[in-house]
Every structure is written in C-alpha cells, then in structure tokens.
Amino acid sequence: MNVSSVAGTRLGASPGWYASGKGAIAAYTRYLAVQQAARIRANAVAPGLIETPRMEGFIESDIGRRIQARVPLGRMGRPEDVAWAILFLLSPKAAYVSGALLQVDGAWTLAQ
User: Fold this and answer.
1) What's the pTM?
2) Contact assessment for residue 25 and residue 2, using Cβ atoms and an 8 Å cutoff
3) E strands in the chain
4) Catalytic annotation on 31?
5) From the candidates 18, 28, 31, 96, which is the catalytic residue?
6) Which one of 41, 64, 95, 99 is most buried, by most CB atoms within 10 A?
7) Architecture of domain 2-111
8) Phi, psi for 38 (deg, rounded to 5)
C-alpha cells in the first residue's frame, strides 16, 4: 500500500521534487502490481487537498481558495477520508484489486 498524490498524477505542484516523487510512487505501484503479483497486491491512494499541518493556512490564501472552489464536493478532505480508502484497499473486499491508484480528492482531478 503506497501513498502518492494528485500532484504526481496530472497537474504537478511546487516544489518539483514533490510532484516527481509522488509520480514515481504511482509508477512503482504499477510495476509492483505486475512484477510481484505472485507475492503481493500493490495499490496506492492519491490524496488531493487534505487538512494536514502541511496545508495549514493554505486554504486561506488566494490560490487555496481558487483551488478549493474547483473541488466538486466543496471541501478539503480529512485525514480519515484517506484512511478509509487505504483500509478498503487493504481489506479482503479489495482482494482482486491490484495496480490501482485511487484518487481521494473530492473529484478535483476530474474537474480540472
């Protein structure tokens, strides 16, 4: 189970190393899903804007308000939103899911 980011899927972010690293995690997850399929299931979540210390104050900025306005669900995600997605992917209910990158972003990526 890996944690990527929407920053590494389509849009990128600053700093560049963050988006590059998160994109690499997504690619490595796909690699593992195929190359290690006999041993493991490999999946990742790609959170969007999540209420974390890293985002503290961001949503009050001009760019933060513009980004949040484009989230179809109308709010930032909460840490538990990501946790529930991870729990599902680790559970037996996802026994036939491997190689997935589950976006946990309130449909933000789709709205771009």
Assistant:
1) 0.90
2) yes
3) 2-3, 44-47, 101-104
4) no
5) 18
6) 41
7) 3-Layer(aba) Sandwich (3.40)
8) -70, -20
